[in-house]
Amino acid sequence: MEQNKKQYEDIRNPGVLLPTGKLAFVCVFLSLIVCNYLSFGFGMMLPMLKEDMLAGNSCAGLLSSVSFFTLLIAQLPAAAVAVRLHPKVSMGLSFLCLAGGCLCHSIASSVWQLVLGRMLLAFHICSLGGAVQMLKGEWVPQKKILGINSAQEFSSNLGHMMGTFFAPLVLSIFLSWRRASGFCLLAASLIAIIWFCFYRDIKDCRIKNGDSNIRFFALAIRRKTVRLLALGWPGAAMIWVAFNSFWPSYALDHTALNYSSAGLAVGMIPIGSVAATLAAAPLTRLIHRDKLIICGWGALLPLFYGATLLTDNLIALCILFFLAGFSSFAYVPVAMSQLWKLPDITPPLVAAGTSLIMLSSNLGSALIGVIYDYLTVNFTQKAALALCCLSPLLWFFSTVFLPEPEEDIYQ
Question: In 10 A of CB 406, how many CB atoms?
Answer without folding.
Answer: 9
